[in-house]
Amino acid sequence: MASSDIDDQPYALFGGYNSSQIVGGEKGLQTFKNNAGSYKSNMRSWALDVKDVQYDGKPLQDGETKRRTAVIDTGSSFVAVPPAEYKALQEKWTAEVDDLDCKSDPTFCSSRLSCESVAKKVKSVTFRIEDTMFELKPMGFLHQGDGICQFAIAQNPLDRHNNGNFLFGGLFLKHFYSVYDFDKELISLGVNTHSKEMVSMHQLEHQKLTSAGEIPRSSAEAEEQQEEASSSFSAAAESEKLAGKIEPKGVQSLDGKLQRNDLAASQSDDQVEEVMKKSDKKR
User: Fold this and answer.
1) Cα 276 to chain center, whole Å?
2) I need a labelling partner for 7 at 20 to 30 A (CA). Which of 17, 31, 174, 270 fits?
3) pLDDT, tens digit, for every residue of 141-184?
4) Which sequence spans correspond to the domains of the chain?
């Protein structure tokens, strides 16, 4: 479902993406490998590697960087974090919001203050996915209810089965536009235009990427990932071209540099049909 007046309502496009709804357009997307990691499920999952969680720009947990899985879950309306991170967030929020209540509701912490008032007291929560920082500013994770302000970051209810994993549900997906490449197992994310005041994305500088206990990515690995990402974007961009949209000018590379992609001539209907058949087989 997609139209010109969808505003911030969820919708899906098959065979392409709406670059006008991404801050920075096509260049605002960052691409990641799908990695379900240790997530235990009989169904195919889309997932990302989370390396760190920060509050007000500082790590919630001390010690070396540890990769954990964040499963993209359209069945959840919130973002769920492992118990250790949730306990640390609760301690931060309790010190900042006098009437914080994390007991009345089995899932969410809340306050009787308006979310606008709470937002002035609490700080941003940031997730490091690979080498990109995804920042949720206070109004990005606070939900105004009837006389109550809820914190839409909760403890992962499935953690006892899934080794400290995260769930990225509706809260994350409404702020970050997502593109899925079934053939190449790639996920591309960008800031949704309606959320540009509530969230942000930025890449770490390359010389700052290596932390204690973390293995730096080799240039060969970086080139391989970039080649896969560029190929994925070229296919998606070509679909936009076939749909009559403006020709894209380039794609955002994994290292934050603009890389030019010269698109081939328009594909024939038979070629497009063949691509769709392959995609259906994957699903």
Assistant:
1) 25
2) 31
3) 999 999 999 999 999 877 665 567 899 999 999 999 999 998 89
4) 19-217
Please report which residue ranges of the chain form alpha helices under DSSP H: 83-96, 115-119, 138-141, 159-162, 170-175, 219-242, 269-282
Tokens 């997609």 — which residue?
2
Length of the chain: 283
Q: Which amino acid is at 225?
A: Q
Q: How far apart are the first and last CA of the chain?
A: 19
Q: Single out the residue of 39, 83, 38 nearest to residue 61, CA to CA.
A: 83
- What is the Cα–Cα distance from 262 to 250, expressed in whole angstroms? 8
State the number of CA atoms in the 13 A half-sphere of 262 facing the CB. 0
User: Tokens at residue 204, please?
Assistant: 């770490």
Residue type, 247: E
CA-CA-CA-CA torsion sign (237, 238, 241, 247):
positive
Two tokens at 38?
């240790």
Query: Which residue do the tokens 């605002």 mark?
Result: 28
DSSP strand pairing (58-59 vs 47-55): antiparallel
pLDDT for 215-256, tens place per residue?
Answer: 344 334 445 545 554 554 454 455 445 545 444 443 333 333
